[in-house]
Structure formats: structure tokens, C-alpha cells
User: Fold this.
Amino acid sequence: MVTRVPAEAARRAEDLRRRLEHHNRRYYLLDDPEISDAEYDRLMRELLDLEAHHPSLVTPESPTQRVGARPLEKFSTIRHARQMLSLQNATDSSEMNEWFERIGWTGLDLWCEPKIDGAAVELIYEEGRFVSASTRGDGWTGEDITPNIRTIRGVPMSLVSSRQGLAVPRLLEVRGEVYMNKSDFAALNRQAEERGEKTFANPRNAAAGSLRQLDPRMTAARPLRLLSHGLGQLVGVSPARQEEAIRLLDALGLMTALKWAKLCRGPEETGRFYADLEAARESLPFEIDGLVVKVDDLAAQERLGVRARSPRWAIAWKFPPREAETRLTDIRVQVGRTGALTPVAMLEPVWVGGVQVSSATLHNQEMIREKGVRIGDRVIVTRAGDVIPEIVRVVSRGGESREFVMPERCPVCGSVVLVAEGEVIPRCPNISCLAQVKGRLLHFASRGAMDIDGMGEKIVDQLVDKQLVKDPSDLYHLTQEQLARLDRMAEKSAANLMASIDRSRVTTLPRLLHALGIRHVGEASAAALSRHFGSLESIMDASEADLMKVEDVGPAVAQSLRAFFTDKANRRVVKRLLDAGISWPKPEMKPAGGPLEGMVIVFTGELESMSRPQAKELAESMGALVAPSVTKKVTHVVAGPGAGSKLDKARALKLTILDEDGFLELTRR
Ligand code: IVH
Assistant:
């Protein structure tokens, strides 16, 4: 049966689609979102609802389709119309000079951009619509990863020209790199660790692995991005230079490396840009491993031609590896908050890529065996971006090397360690083990949890060793005098720490839930649980079956929650936390709407009762949008001590200005 879709619904769907894509672009391409995540989710939900009522409204380009289609049995293949080439490498300036000579660079400009450490892909747009995507494969035939690329929010499903006089090309084959930002990668690994899953070695592996998922829903859950750097076939426009081609892609709404690229007029300028880029390497949001130098003139590219697998007109000038050789002096065992025993390599201090390294994780015994590492060996250490240092391989072995043996007892409390069925990691089973107690406290106070500024390792060690604190609820009974008596704690820092502890009393339900350190419950599942149940009591009393009704909560999470909340000691800690005044303004995490709906709030100056992120979270949970700067769209400005130009601007625009109490008043309405 064909039902007619009311014109009104069709118009609204089209409008929502356009707006969602616009916000994707603001977020992923321009790094400058205009609306909050909550507001984005609201638009998305409205579109999902509309499409559910009128299935004929669903188009392949709809942003709702980014959540991931059904899993594939296997990948089919796609043949590239033009070979996807790779690059020859130069490792130093003399190899670069040889290349400059080979191409006879005189008079040729060079387009230089960062070499992104990701996975190569080709996307095809016909009449401005995304139709397919593939991996490089052997250069001629790649795997069809169309459904997976569709899930990447920064990849436009329809091209729109933002430049006057530029029409959308009839056919566009664009090549680029799928990658992850360093911060997204770190968060992904943190989540995996929390769930007891395998972590990725580096952002490139994570990106490549995420792309090759047969289940696009898995890909959708990964923070992938795409940066385009070249063309395959192009019909409808004919750029004459590489820079022009990149600007064209940018004008069509694709993300490029324009911001980090430069047109250089010869070897000297290229050399300077290489040095600049290497100096900026750490501060870029993504991993790069060198500079790609391309002849800018496309006709000259054509003339220079290609070799078997790489063009003559381009080269990758690699950065020296961030690796160093040193001696592994010992392997110590660390006990984490879940009791997991992790071997850590102690190293003779060595500089790796601008940072001094004196230890490296070895993850587990399996890895030590695989790498054949023994105590006393000389080893190569590497550091990739924000990732913790790792041992790459053994270089040589002295006469006195010895094998590492995992202890049978916990090095901290002496309990016999256990390996659970189906697991490989040995754990200390004693939940009162001081290492676990300290680990749980550090987690409780951490940024994504209760966010107690100043509660670091040294403080936690002392608080536990002096028996001032046994569980998180004890933190709220500490006095400033007790804190001031700790080692290396001045009066002022004791007062600051006391204030941070106090401030953390006002929080959100997801933060508290995450802070409890329940196995498998990370930030994302804590948020989903809070949204679903709305109150702590309902989560504490929910059955496994009820818990599993929540998105992304599987049997492992449900079991772990159930086990945690049936434990009397845990319930006691929760009760003591609530008795100590931990609270979160209600209503909790209203899914849509809320008492502050329609308000656009800017915070400026200091707040007393909560941190800025907490205030933002609170406002958004009640339906407000939180903006970074004062514009005409802003409805309320919350100003505290130290407010500066934003307050002046708010006055000039005659906006409603509130102090902190005024804001809190609003949230209680
Ligand atoms: S241009 C003709 N530009 O590095 C070759 N490639 O190791 C076209 N890559 O296959 C490549 N960043 O996947 C180019 N800014 C960039 C790049 C880049 C990363 C990748 C690309 C290439 C591989 C070669």
C-alpha cells in the first residue's frame, strides 16, 4: 500500500536533514559547533520519528542512515577507475634533494601538506550524491566499505557548493585518509579498557580496524574522520593546480588539510616548512608521520607520470621515528582499581620525541612472551602521540638477563592472585587491597567522574596510608586541618582541595554512576543508564533484564551492575555518599525539552557551587543550549566574579544577565 506523505512532513524532514548536515559540518569540518550535543540529538530524534511514521521519506543521504546499516556477510570489491597509488619515501634531506633533481624542480611550485597516519580510501559522488566508497586494496581493486563510510558524520552525503560560480561536479572521485583524532583515540582506548576489551596500539590501527568492520553499527560507534587529499576522476570542473583541487574539495564541503598546508617555491622553502610542521607535530589534533610534497602544476604532474606503484610527482618526506634504544632494568607489577596485575617495564631514562621516558606498559604476560622481552635486555621504545610509551622489540641481550615471572601473590596485599575463567589477566581478589582502594579513589576523583581538582596520586596515597580514607564517602568527612597535615600540603592548597571536594557534591547522575567504578560501566553507559532510568534508586533496584533494555547495555554490564548493587558494602557507600550531600539537580537528564528549553546561555566568570563543565551539563540536561560566546541568539548570560568582555557585550545587547544564584533559581523552577 502506498500512503501519501503530507507535504508538511516532507518539508520538515528535508529541513531537518539540511540542518543536521549543517551541524555535522560545523562540528567535524570547522571544529566550531553552533549547538549542543543535546540539541543535535533532539533534531535527530525528530527526524527519526518522522521517518518512522513515513518510511518513504527515508533517503540514503538522510543523516539517520549514519547509525549503521545491517551487517554484511563479507565485503564485495570495487575497481578503481584510476589506480590508487602509494608514495615513495624520503627519510632525510639528501634523499629529498635527489628527488628535487630528478623532477627538475626549477620553476615548479610544490604543494606541501601533512602526511596523515590513517587508512586510504576513495569516495565517489555522482551529481553531488555520495554513492560508494572503497579501500585502496592492491591499488586497482579495493573493498566496498560504502555502508561504513556513510556512518562518518564529517563525510557529506550530498555536496553543496559554497563558492559562487562553482557548480557541483557531475562525477567526483575523491581520495583521502580515514583517521582518528588523538583525543578521540585516547577516549576510545579508555572505554575499551574499562570494558575489559582489547585496546588499539595507535590511532592508525584503530581507524583501519574500524573501517573494516562487517557490521557498520560498529563503525558508527567509532570516532572516525576523513581528510581528503586528492582526486581520481573528475567530470564538470578542471582545476589546473593541486592547491586549486584541494580548495575545490573544501568548497564542496569535504574536509581537507588546507589549514596545515602550504605552497612552497622550491627546496629551501619546503625544508623550512618541513621543520615547522615537525615542530607543530605534537600540537596537531591527529597523528602525522611526515610531509607530503606534490608538484602543484597538474599538467607537470601528468608529464612526470607514474612508476609501478607511486607517482614521480610526489614524495613523502618522513619524520625521524619517535623511537629510542635503552635498557630495561626491571619489570614491576602494578595493581589497578579492579585488582588487575599489569607488568610495567622500568627503563633507563631516555628521550623519545621530546619527552623523557622511564617506564613503559607491557600490558600482560602474553605480550612479554610475544615480544620475547627479558629483564636486562636492550630494547627499542616508541611513543605515538598521546599514547603511553611501548616496547617495540628487543635489540640485544646481555649475559645477565632474566625472565619475568608473574607473581602468584598480590605485590601489595599478599593475596593469592586468581585468573577468572575465560580471562587471561590475573587479579588480586581482595577488594580491601590498598592498591585497589587507592585506584578506586583516584578514579572517583578523576575528571570524567566527580572531578575533584587536586586529588592526585600523592594525596590519595597519604590519605589511605594514614587511614583517613577507606572509601569515596570518607572524602566528604575530611577536615581542612587533616588535609593541611599531609606532606607537602600548604595551608592554601588544603583550602583549595577542601573547596574542590565541596564543589563536587553538586554533580550529575551519570558522573556519580561512572565514579562508583562499577566494572564495564564507563561514561557512555552511565549516561545511557541515567537517561533511561532517570534516578539512582531505579538503577540500583533494576533487574538484569530491565538493565539490558538500555541501549548498549549487554549481559556483562547488566551482571556487573547487579552484582555491584546487591553487595551490602557497596550500598552502604552509596548511602553514605548521599548522606554527605552528593546531589544532582532534578529533573535528571530529561531526554528532550525541559524547563530551560529555548534558552541559549553563556557562562562567564567564576562559579562557586560547581565547575563550568558541570554548569554546562546541568543547563543542557534541562533543555538549554550553551553557547561559547555572546551573540544576538543568546538569551541569558550567567556572570560570576571576574567576568570580562562577554559581560560588556551582554550589556550592550541588553541581554538578561544572571548571577549564579539567579541561574540556580532557574534550574529549580
Ligand atoms: S597524496 C599519489 N597526501 O599516504 C599518491 N597521501 O604512504 C597520493 N597519505 O597512499 C597520495 N596523507 O593514503 C597524499 N596528505 C596526503 C596524505 C597521503 C596520508 C597516505 C595516502 C598514501 C599513503 C602513502
